[in-house]
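Session log. Operator J.P. requested a structure for one protein chain; no other inputs attached. Running the standard single-chain path with token output.
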Amino acid sequence: MNRSRLTGQRLVAIFLLGCVLLNYPLLFLFNRDANLFGIPLLYAYIFLAWAGLIGLMAWVIELRRD
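Structure written below.
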């Protein structure tokens, strides 16, 4: 399988992971009256999930052939 096709498939998988992470059932789990370092738990979860997805995309795009 060529490199660009594999990268594309991985990016689609990350997109689908993002859809799951930022969907209502998981967001509802973090919609509590709690704080994480002074930030509401829901906002912290959204930011960390978003940053994690960006990190995964950067890692997949920057992978080099062995």
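Operator note: The mean pLDDT is 92.
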